[in-house]
Design goal:
The structure holds two protein chains of two kinds.
Chain A (H helix, E strand, L loop, with lengths): L1 H93 L2 H8 L4 H19 L3 E6 L4 E6 L8 E4 L8 H7 L5 E8 L4 E11 L4 E10 H11 L6 E5 L5 E4 L15 H9 L8 E7 L2 E9 L6 E7 H4 L1 H32 L2 H44 L3 H7 L2 E7 L7 E8 L4 E9 L3 H21 L5 H16 L3 H4 L5 E9 L3 E7 L3 E5 L2 E5 L20 E4 L5 E5 L1 H5 L1 E2 L4 E2 L2 H10 L5 H16 L8 E7 L2
Helix pairs in contact in A: 1-3, 1-8, 1-9, 2-3, 9-11, 11-12
Chain B lengths: L3 E3 L7 E5 L4 E8 L4 H18 L4 E11 L1 H19 L3 E9 L4 H12 L4 E6 L2
Parallel strand pairs in B: 3-4, 4-5, 5-6
Antiparallel strand pairs in B: 1-2, 2-3
Helix pairs in contact in B: 1-2
The chains are: A alpha+beta, B alpha/beta.
Chain lengths: 629, 127
């Protein structure tokens, strides 16, 4: 028994430990996974943002200090190269002997003219200018070269002071400047050109103008090839702050103040009086930061202005930003996925709960089976005990023979009990002894007691006078104390019993003696209670000399005697959950007076059931009633 | 001296053995299978209490609606101990609280009273 209990408690401990283990592991793992995920996510976001910020700083620095300067250098180099080449070509043409001779008209003009025009074609072809011209002389005509036909045919046009398109020529002649630039639409070429004009002859007495023209479309195209960024601007600005050449043809002729803030224009204008140098600055336009650089061209009175929005300038940052954001999203997603996988797949509390429940259910099932088996074993044995106890009780036939009208209520609280009734007829039925007893305890211990008590009773009644219940009582008490009393102090178990003994002589004289049990006697409307002694049998305080003689009652026909153990009187129930009580019991007896005892039995059972309701039986209940004929 | 407490259960009463307040309380119902196990600590406690001071004061309050046979025997043992101490000069007062509608508990108290010299005070209580 002890071993079994130990085993069970070990099993319970093991389950509890397992449960605790799972709970701790799962909670710790969950927490650690969560913390790890937060750390990883934080680190990824931090490094991403940090990298982006430092890249941004570096790229902006580089774009301002290196890229802008390089772009401007390249542009000015290119433009200056173009202009220098144009200047050289124009100078060469203007100072050519044949041209000077031809325009002076001093020599055979036809031959000289052919020579001069040949030189024009030669220079235009060699320097690869789309447009070259000679204008002036006595005729005042404008001769030009067209790259499209390689100068095979002589092309000329008459210049006129009244023609606005020809004004440049007359301004040049009177301008007292060796060289000048102008941008003009060429009617013959049907294109706008940047012309480099050089005076032929002495500066005070010019005899004509020679020069080359660069197609603005070509220049713009070159600009386009140089520019970086979609929204960048590249302008050549003159002293009047007017855009002369732009990568966008539409900007040509625009005053700068339409496109740039005043202070920026002022700064650009200032550069005309200074040495050519690259200046880089930034300003805000419509909330966007614009990077702007400019440099005055050394050979001309023009300034190259290059402008690019920072967002374009650092457009590479956008791809970095996209990459960073993408990386962060991917990492976060993976981390979250990992976290969910860990927490919901491996350490899913729900799953664990189910697992644990299954385990517990299994344990419960196993133990229930064990208990059922153990219980079945015990119950089998108790059932056998019940049969034994029942055989000890008087049989129905014996009872009927002795008491033709009687009933018995024997209701052990458990299968067996400490209550019993016992009957004996002696001297051929002249003397009947009927006993109701209530041994201390219920169930098996109580039943064991009843066996002992009935055995003693059999012995006593075999050798002693059965007419006197007090003698039987005393002897029973003596033997009980002798048999059990010496062990009481050791075990603390007081093996006593309540008992009621009726001895009936010739069906007319009844003698009663009770130990903590009373006899109820109902005869012709009067209920009497014959009190037993207050002391019980086998009580350790036992001093039995005080028992007086038995009480003699003369019986009449129809008198009903009832003996009951305290089980009925003490049964709790009713609205107040109080003991059934003597008063209640007596009322029930009187109420059923005159009814056949078999009916009375049913009435009592019903009464008791109603009173108990859902309450459990508290004690063994035994009631024996008999009626004299 | 340590106080002793036992919670009320379906089968056993609330028991309080309080040395500082010099009082014992028994409240509820008493019908355990093994009454001796329930009352054994009470016996030890009472023995110890009077071994420290045989003339000690003690108020014992009972409020038991049902007492089964074996519990009755244990209470009888308790009363004998108290009676012994009382006869040696201890100041003991028994307060027997009973329910007027019950009928059982008053009778039980009267039965105990008959066996001992201890002063009993019966206190009726209406539900």
């Amino acid at each position: 028994m002890t071993g079994q209990r130990d085993r069970q408690s070990h099993a319970t401990d093991a389950v509890a430990a397992e449960d605790l283990f799972f709970r701790l592991v799962s909670r710790r793992t969950f927490l650690m996974t969560a913390i790890a995920c937060v750390f990883i996510a934080g680190a990824v976001i931090f490094t991403g943002v940090f990298n982006y910020k430092s890249s941004e700083r570096e790229i902006i620095r580089k774009s301002k200090n290196v890229d802008m300067v390089n772009v401007l250098k390249a542009i000015t180099y290119k433009v200056e190269g173009m202009v220098t080449r144009a200047e050289d070509a124009s100078q060469l043409l203007a100072s050519d002997d044949s041209v000077v001779k031809w325009f002076r008209g001093t020599v055979n003009s036809r031959q000289v003219k052919a020579q001069a025009l040949g030189r024009l074609n030669q220079i235009a072809t060699e320097f690869r200018f789309s447009n070259a011209f000679l204008a002036g002389g006595k005729t005042g005509r404008y001769y030009y070269h067209m790259s499209s036909d390689n100068g095979k045919a002589e092309k000329s046009a008459m210049l006129s002071k009244t023609e606005t398109g020809d004004r440049w020529y007359y301004e040049m002649l009177g301008g007292k400047q060796r060289m000048a630039f102008n941008v003009e639409y060429d009617r013959a070429m049907k294109d706008t050109f940047l012309f480099v004009n050089v005076l032929v002859g002495q500066i005070n007495k010019p005899i004509g103008v020679a020069g080359v023209g660069m197609s603005l479309s070509d220049i713009s195209r070159e600009f386009s090839e140089m520019h970086a960024g979609i929204s960048s601007e590249l302008w050549l600005v003159d002293e009047d702050n007017v855009i002369q050449i732009s990568q966008k043809l539409s900007h040509r002729g625009f005053p700068l103040n339409v496109l740039l803030p005043k202070d920026i224009i002022a700064r650009i204008h200032d550069s005309f009086g200074k040495k050519p140098a690259i200046t880089i600055l930034a300003y805000r336009k419509n909330g966007k930061i614009m990077d702007l650089g400019y440099k005055r061209l050394a050979s001309t009175k023009w300034v190259v202005v290059y402008q690019i929005p920072r967002t374009d300038n650092i457009s590479v940052l956008n791809s970095i930003k996209t990459n960073v954001v993408l990386t962060i999203i991917i990492v976060l997603f993976s981390v979250v996925l990992l976290f969910f996988a860990v927490s919901y797949k491996l350490y899913d509390p729900y799953k664990q709960a189910i697992m644990l429940t299954k385990k517990l259910e299994e344990n419960v099932r196993r133990r229930t089976t064990e208990l059922v088996e153990a219980n079945a074993l015990v119950m089998d044995s108790i059932q056998v005990a019940k049969h034994i106890q029942e055989t000890m009780l008087p049989s129905v036939e014996e009872m009927n023979a002795a008491f033709p009208e009687h009933f018995v209520l024997w209701m052990p609280r458990d299968v067996v009990g400490g209550d019993f009734y016992w009957m004996k007829t002696v001297e051929s039925g002249h003397i009947k002894v009927i006993v109701v007893g209530d041994c201390t305890g219920h169930g098996v211990p109580g039943a064991l007691m009843t066996m002992a008590v009935t055995a003693i009773l059999s012995n006593i009644t075999a050798v002693m006078d059965c007419r006197d219940p007090v003698t039987i009582l005393r002897e029973l008490d003596r033997q009980m104390n002798q048999a059990y009393h010496q062990n009481i102090t050791k075990t603390g178990i007081d093996n006593g019993l309540d008992i009621g003994i009726c001895c009936i002589e010739e069906n007319s004289i009844l003698r009663f003696a009770g130990a903590k049990m009373d006899l109820y006697l109902l005869g012709t409307g009067v209920l009497r209670m014959i009190k037993g002694y207050k002391r019980e049998i086998g009580s350790r305080s036992g001093n039995f000399g005080e028992y007086g003689g038995s009480i003699d009652v003369l019986l009449s026909e129809g008198d009903t005697m009832i003996l009951t153990t305290d089980g009925l009187l003490h049964q709790n129930g009713g609205a107040q959950d109080q003991p059934f009580g003597v008063k209640h019991f007596e009322e029930a007896i009187v109420r059923n007076e005159g009814l056949p005892l078999s009916t009375v039995r049913n009435e009592f059972v019903l009464e008791l059931q109603n009173y108990m309701g859902q309450k459990k039986q508290r004690d063994d209940i035994t009631l024996v009633a008999f009626r004299m004929k | 001296m340590k106080n002793y407490f036992a919670e009320e259960t379906k089968l056993s009463p609330y028991i309080e053995l309080n040395a500082e307040r010099k009082q014992l309380i028994f409240r509820g119902q008493s019908y355990p299978e093994n009454a001796y196990r329930v009352y054994e600590p009470v016996f030890h406690w009472v023995d110890q209490y009077f071994s420290r001071d045989i003339r000690g004061e003690l108020i014992v309050n009972f409020e038991l609606s049902y007492i089964n046979t074996s519990s009755t025997k244990c209470l009888l043992m308790l009363f004998e101990k108290l009676d012994e101490a009382y006869r040696q000069g201890a100041e003991i007062q028994i307060n027997w609280n009973y329910d007027e509608g019950n009928g059982f508990d008053y009778e039980m108290g009267q039965d105990f009273k008959e066996d001992v010299e201890l002063p009993f005070r019966f206190i009726a209580r209406n539900r």
